[in-house]
């Protein structure tokens, strides 16, 4: 399975590398949001942080990932409509390799996008006191978040009837950080909005990443963040696998 998945992964990565503007395009929106909020709105926002780019970056990274996984849906949809998926299924390879290739491609491409966003943030003044272990934990959480959203993206990629339908689901995910602690502390929000913001996945993940990068202590919040990531991933994997088996007979 591993060798076949690697071959299929290589095919998808070569497609991306032939058109690197995919990664650049995915990175543009979060970078523009970073620039806009830091240099235009940053002076008027009370975040409780001396360096607003430090406060903002974790939420921007989640936005970048949410934007990037839409391409998983698109690539999967394209493979199905072009007939490639049907050809792969008839070949002597494990069928799950086809899906895992798309998922691993998303993991790699989103890691590249996140790296680009972090480099831009460094130029804007982002600084962190995190040690190597803290950074590894941040990378792990971002990886789990990417896997969770990618398996979620597989479902419309398999079921959509149009290109627009395959990617439309990503828009609510991209804007979910706006109703969280990503841009401002939840304490500043009205009660109803605050209740939603404090009990949705983005807030717990953002707070955990922020704590790892700047505070060095995450407390019990990390378990909530991990629970959200694993929960979404397991549920999405179940429905995506079920739909793939149905379509592949």
TrEMBL record:
Its main location: membrane. Keywords: Cell membrane, Membrane, Transmembrane, Transmembrane helix, Transport. It is found in: Cell membrane; Membrane. PROSITE patterns: ABC_TM2 (PS51012). Residues 21-247 form the ABC transmembrane type-2 domain. One of its GO terms (cellular component) is ATP-binding cassette (ABC) transporter complex. It is a multi-pass membrane protein. GO terms for molecular function: ABC-type transporter activity. It comes from the Bacteria. The chain crosses the membrane at residues 21-41, 53-77, 98-126, 132-154, 166-184, 222-240. Belongs to the ABC-2 integral membrane protein family. This is Transport permease protein.
